């Protein structure tokens, strides 16, 4: 037992240095303001008050939540049919399709986002195809459409994989039992398949919404710096303005929102699992 416990020490040390210490520093900076001396800190709540009383920052937060919600809804609407079709394929076809879904994630997300910049430019690939039909150029880059498209493209594999896992683990005998009892395809889907796949949907929502609400380089690249989300505000406070105290306060607010979202999705997941057992 002591041998196994000693194997956890490197992991605990890594967690402490890379996660615990930075989080403690964020909390320290969020609740303090720097004095004349670098090592002097004064307790204050002004950093939080500045954020919640400034309409500009609240508008940025609201825009970030809306963009993340729209991205999540689109990923569910597109990802569920794709995952459902893949789950119906036989073994080898199923494996190949999952491989194709995961292959884009092997490329760095920043590189994939840069690729979309070239596609959406006024002289890009997409407008080049539209020009064949006498359409365009249609302004797509540096718009909310480009930001949402970039987020959906980058995050939808997580939704598909989570839903596919739930569908793939589902007991197929339940479908046969529903058919024997006279249920048609639609009723079988609504009464059996959909409820049993909801845990995967909820997990997918968590994996899409959380990174979408805090994303900063996708809106920065595809929005051209004109479409500011809360992640961009945090980045600018740390790297441009040098106001680490205010940046830490915003980061802490976002951490609370993310943890609250995780709690609600976890609670919904438990409720769905309990309903399925009944």
Helix-strand layout with pairing:
Layout: H1 2-7, H2 9-30, E1 32-34, E2 41-43, H3 46-53, H4 55-88, H5 91-102, H6 109-120, H7 125-132, H8 144-169, H9 172-180, H10 185-213, H11 217-222, H12 230-239, H13 244-277
Antiparallel strand pairs: 1-2
Question: How does this model look, in words?
Answer:
- By secondary structure, the chain is mainly alpha-helical.
- It has a single domain, classed as MetI-like (MetI-like fold), CATH 1.10.3720.
- Helix content is 78%, strand content 2%.
- It is built from 13 helices and two strands.
- A two-stranded antiparallel sheet has the order 1-2.
- The chain is globular.
- The model has no long low-confidence stretch (mean pLDDT 85).
**Binned strand content:** under 5%
Shape: globular
Q: Which CATH architecture?
A: Orthogonal Bundle
Q: Percent helix among the residues? A: over 70%
CA radius of gyration is 23 Å
Summary, kept brief:
By secondary structure, the protein is mostly helical.
Could you name the key traits of this structure?
278 residues; mainly alpha; MetI-like fold; two-stranded antiparallel ribbon; 13 helices; 2% strand; globular
């Amino acid at each position: 037992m002591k041998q196994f416990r000693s194997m956890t020490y490197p992991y605990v040390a890594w967690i402490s240095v890379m996660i615990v210490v930075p989080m403690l520093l964020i909390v320290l900076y969020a609740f303090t303001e720097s004095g004349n001396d670098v090592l002097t800190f004064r307790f204050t709540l002004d950093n939080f008050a500045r954020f919640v009383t400034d309409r500009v920052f609240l508008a940025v937060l609201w825009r970030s939540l809306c963009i993340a919600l729209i991205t999540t809804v689109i990923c569910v609407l597109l990802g569920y049919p794709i995952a459902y079709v893949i789950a119906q394929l036989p073994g080898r076809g199923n494996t190949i399709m999952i491989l194709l879904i995961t292959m884009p994630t092997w490329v760095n997300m920043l590189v994939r986002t840069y690729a979309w910049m070239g596609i959406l430019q006024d002289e890009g690939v997409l407008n080049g195809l539209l020009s064949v039909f006498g359409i365009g150029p249609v302004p797509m880059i540096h718009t909310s459409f480009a930001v949402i498209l970039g987020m959906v493209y980058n995050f939808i594999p997580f939704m598909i994989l989570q839903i596919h896992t739930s569908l793939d683990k589902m007991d197929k005998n339940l479908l046969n039992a529903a058919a024997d009892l006279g249920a048609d395809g639609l009723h079988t889907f609504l009464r059996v398949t959909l409820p049993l796949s909801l845990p995967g949907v909820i997990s997918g929502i968590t994996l899409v919404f959380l990174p979408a609400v805090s994303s900063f380089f996708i809106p920065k690249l595809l929005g051209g710096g004109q479409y500011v989300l809360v992640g961009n505000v945090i980045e600018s406070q740390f790297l441009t303005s040098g106001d680490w105290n205010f940046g830490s306060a915003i980061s802490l607010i976002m951490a609370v929102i993310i943890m609250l979202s995780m709690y609600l999705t976890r609670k919904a997941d438990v409720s769905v699992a309990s309903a399925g057992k009944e």
